[in-house]
Amino acid sequence: xxxxxxxxxxxxxxxxxxxxxxxxxxxxxxxxxxxxxxxxxxxxxxxxxxxxxxxxxxxxxxxxxxxxxxxxxxxxxxxxxxxxxxxxxxxxxxxxxxxxxxxxxxxxxxxxxxxxxxxxxxxxxxxxxxxxxxxxxxxxxxxxxxxxxxxxxxxxxxxxxxxxxxxxxxxxxxxxxxxxxxxxxxxxxxxxxxxxxxxxxxxxxxxxxxxxxxxxxxxxxxxxxxxxxxxxxxxxxxxxxxxxxxxxxxxxxxxxxxxxxxxxxxxxxxxxxxxxxxxxxxxxxxxxxxxxxxxxxxxxxxxxxxxxxxxxxxxxxxxxxxxxxxxxxxxxxxxxxxxxxxxxxxxxxxxxxxxxxxxxxx
Amino acid sequence: xxxxxxxxxxxxxxxxxxxxxxxxxxxxxxxxxxxxxxxxxxxxxxxxxxxxxxxxxxxxxxxxxxxxx
Lengths: 362, 69
What we know:
CATH class of chain B: Mainly Beta
Order of helices and strands of chain B: EEEEEH
Number of domains of chain B: 1
CATH superfamily of the largest domain in chain A: HypD, alpha/beta domain 2
Strand content of chain A: 15-25%
Structural class of chain A: alpha/beta
CATH class of the largest domain in chain A: Alpha Beta
Oligomer: heterodimer
Mean pLDDT of chain B: 86
Number of domains of chain A: 2
Helix content of chain A: 25-40%
Mean pLDDT of chain A: 93
Largest sheet of chain B: 3 strands, antiparallel
CATH topology of chain B: SH3 type barrels
Low-confidence stretches of chain A: none
Number of strands of chain B: 5
Shape of chain B: elongated
């Protein structure tokens, strides 16, 4: 496939690996891949096992489903129990446990919960059935948010009054700032998420190098992209420099996609938000601008149960990169992809699910 | 994914012989023949073909350098 196969060439990956080893000369380094898609791609491509021994890769808080707190799920579940309400969601939210239930369980007990591939499909469902209220679960980072915002604008232009979004969206740069400030996380380099930066550009991440002196490379998702991104980080680490580089230039521009950003900004505005494991981060969430409040599903009255955390689950520390899945007593025993306790085991991009599926780390 | 048809704010892309409708509301001036990055049914960026080729040249350079001490 054009522009795809070229980025999977094994002999080129080998060269990048040799370059990484040459640059690091056996020194220890901890780098974090922020994005869940990177986590999975590093395992699936086998790269994780081929990197020099001293180079430790940590998974960050870049799986939207994983960082969504129980309180959000509890509200979604409460909404799904209301008569006349249909909940539409991306598939990966379906099995995530809330405080005492999950969307999957609610559907089994009769709630109308439907999976959609795109928020545009959720608007179409609402258009087809004006007798029901449709609540779309808006979960995702800057990659997903412009599409949701565009769908809200579309619903408004259609005059729909039965389309609502429960906004659980999160912004990546404020979370990166929180991580950079966290002494426990302490990484020497960051692989920045290619698709988030496709939308927002690399400029909003410049503070990582300028204020915190952390080498950072915006990286793509094919094996060669990842190997090259890590080689670029290794070079900065070896030189003792810190700047923001773009490895994934075929998709990422410093300014991103300004049209997508302006669509997002026209519908939503930043607010404080709670991340599973990390806690509250100022300016890291989004809420509807007042002129769009009619679309806000958080305004639909519902009886939400008090939030409870899942006892023993280490998802929070795994998301910060301070613990690995193997450190968790539940991992692979009480918590498996078939019967997950924590969100990181549910999502296909979750760190625990990736470790479970592609082999436990030694 | 290669853009095959543009109809107002929706388009049809083809990948591996499969055609799919996508939204073009986030794109500035999409054209048939563009390669698009698509996420959750929305095109979020055009793939920069020149840059893709430049990236591949950079890899060739690394290959040359990797042999050196």
